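Morning!

This is the sequence you dropped in the shared folder:
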Amino acid sequence: MKKWIKISATLLIALIITIICSFHYSYYFYMKSDEVISFDMESMPTNIVINGYETNENKLICTTEDSWIDIPLNGVKINYVEIDSPEKVESPVPVQVYYKINSEYSETNSTKYTIHTNKKNRIYIPDNQYNGVRLDIGNKNGDKLTIGKITVGNESMDYIQKVGTLKLIITMGIVSIILFGLQHTIKLMQDAKMIQSAPLTIFNKYKKRVWYAIMWIGIAYYIYMGIKTRGYAILNTLHNDAGDTFMDFFNSMMYERHPYESKVIYPPIANLIYYFFYLFVPSDIFVAGSFAIRDSQIGRVLIAMYISLTTLGFLYAILKLKKGIIEEKILFGVTLICSMPFLYQLERANMIFVSLFFLMIYIYGYNSEKEIVKHIAFISLAVSASIKIYPALFGLILIRDKRWKDALICCMYGIIIFLAPFMFFGGIKNVGLMIANILNCTADMNNTGEGLKLNISNIFNYLGIIVCNDKSAFDVVTIIMKVFCLFGGTCLILFGEFKQKWKLYMVPTLMMILIPDFSFLYAMTFICIPLIYFLDNKETNCRIDIIYFILFVLMLIPIVNTENPLLDSFKNDYYPLTMSVIIESMATFIFMIILWGEGIYSIIQKRVKGEQVVEMKTLDLDNIK
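The structure's back. Tokens below.
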């Protein structure tokens, strides 16, 4: 049994590496086989016929509802048209694509689409040989639609799939051989006493340095690509609507004392904080709307104050929680702020940063021998849970430690802090309305696309589309994994045999990220709590911690997104799926599977076999025979 665990763990690593490689191979052959015709105003062929357009700075500008472009193809086989629209208008724009198979365009050989502005729009058409394509773009709102570039081509998907499958098999075989070979070599060297304790001693000694080095290499590359692309590489990892920056903050100021009638899902203490900032906004600016507030002088001052205060609070909490010299603590904080989840959180200006700060204060003080510090910690957990609800899972740690009195006190603080602000927003009766809003929001989230979200539902939604071309293909698996995450995680918090503190903190953190359907990228910011204890732990006795180290990096490092044909079916979603989201969400899910398996195995070992668990060496790959 143990031998098969070792083999399965090795194959899992090989599969992760292979999947990453397969994306690269597919993209490579996609680029080689893709482009047929691509043009902008500088390179427009003379046989292109346009009507209802102006030209300006190498762009086509649609100015009427009767605007069309004729692209002669002379029998070229194509299966898509891509329109690059670099500027934003208020609503999606309808476009009808006509295909000239013989000599005439007709309604029977046409398809209606909707294209979104401020992005590339790939419109798939029946794979065939055409004499021409006409793009009839109708802008019903009267806005100008700017087109920067048009590409007509054939993806040659059959060719990609054949090459991708072959490369997938070859790559996984090679990676598996290398990994098994490395394991066997290390084992032989240990038996010959050529090295001591395999790589664990080296890992313990250089863990922090390697983490900082990898993170800053990733950050440096992220910055380099941002400069090289004039910011587009960075924009592709943030919210898809570049005009919506900071709007989690400003939109939430618009509801005054009636948020739940406007379908707001935030608990009342969060609305109370937003209401405090609302009081600084002049009436004439407020009536102009949330964007007007953001663009005003007072709006810029308020957002600067909010970001400054929350960032300083976060750094202060790190100084309290983390071990080491102050310079290393500051470096750790700056590294996290430059990581992917924190950058996204800053761009959204979401209240999750406040919740994180209070949760970190709870972790710092809940075990204190000083009563005042403990009560501050309990109040902090109550505030954190009253802002984002799911941090309440950390309260189960008190029950785990059989601190019944402290658990009761903490629960009382939570009830008071959660319910009291309702008096300011219509009374306790709005609790039900808030819950209804949350449930409706959860349902709505499933219709916005698979990008920027990390939860289990989202993972199996995009896997269903990629593998089966059916979003609901893995719905049963989704339910099973949610139940496994919820009940398995709860059992691990209450009964798990964790000698490493970071693993205990990691369980509720992963539950907070993976279970809620509205878990966006910024939910990953909570990962900093277990990460602090993971890096500070100097006595790693289990090789599986090296896998955890790799997963921690993948969950946080900034990843530059590039176009990939495997993700083209997501391009027209409101939140398009990207490679960075796939890597971060899969790393989180795999982390949960391994940690849950390790924890459950330790419980079984102790309670069924009656063995004493020490650092959970049962999953030490070096001891599995």
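Headline: The radius of gyration is 27 Å.

More detail when I'm at my desk.
O.
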